Amino acid sequence: MLSTLALALPLLALTASAAPTRRTASVQVQFANDVTGANGNAYIPLDGSLVSLGQAYANTNLEVDGTLNVTSLEFTANFQNVACTVFKNGVTVVASIADPKTDFETFSEKPLNWQTGFEISCAVASTPARRTAGTVQVQFANDVTGANGNAWIPLDGSSITLGEAYADTDLEVDGTLFVTSLEFTANFQNVVCDVLKDEAINVAHIADSKQDFETFSQKPLNWQTGFTINCTLPHSV
After folding, report:
1. Which N-terminal stretch is annotated as signal sequence (predicted)?
2. What is the pTM of this model?
3. Residues 144, 120 share a domain
């Protein structure tokens, strides 16, 4: 009896040690504050789930007194054929990187506090990141002051409030969003975008390849509230 037990215990220990710890595939993504030089890395699972930036980068040099001020992001490890998208409140696309096309993105010249309300979602190319049916980067500008701002707009035809999409750009000043023109700046092949007032009146329109740019006013207009943008591919118009 004792000899049988003595043989069984080492065998059980060997079996337990042979069972590997389950680990979800992940990609290492670095956010940086290019003004201060601070940066932080975190491993993001490749299952398309939304991961809070404030939690993922809480123990990095980026986190200072409850803030997470960032200007850019890039892949730093395990990123072959990986796509990552950053969302505001799980809906609005604010940044995107994808290997091998765009491994790095500077989304703002001035640091933005993405401590709360911002998430990142990553997946391998065969299983695109959550809510990435496709996006286009659209830039609004105030041609009088020289300020401009970029935002990623989904290509599903949904209405995106300008005041929210461009809130963390140089265009937003004291609760106003003064603009004079708009144009495509990335991923815009065969894309159509319309700007609506009160979701009814068309006030601006751009379409690749016919009209990639439009100046809709000589004097800056405050489109902070009541104005939305929607973008689609021609086949979904």
Report:
1. 1-18
2. 0.50
3. no
Owner of token pair 């096309």:
101
Which residue type, as a one-letter code, is found at position 194?
D
147 and 228, same domain (yes or no): yes
* Chain segment 43-76, per-residue pLDDT in tens: 999 988 999 999 999 999 999 999 999 999 999 9
Rounded Cα–Cα distance for residues 101 and 120 (Å): 18
Residue 189 domain-assigned (yes or no): yes
Residue 128 token pair: 């695109």
DSSP per-residue string spanning 58-102:
TTSTTEETTEEEESEEEEEES-TTEEEEEEETTTEEEEEEETTTB
Domain with 99, as residue range(s), is: 26-124
Burial of 165: CB neighbours in 10 Å, binned 0-12, 13-18, 19+: buried
Alpha carbons 222 and 138: distance in angstroms, whole number: 17
81 plus 141 within the same structural domain: no
The predicted-structure confidence for 8-20, as pLDDT tens digits, reads as follows 444 444 443 343 3
Residue 18 counted as domain residue: no
Q: What is the dihedral of CA 139, 27, 37, 166, to 10 degrees?
A: 20
- Residue 129 counted as domain residue: no
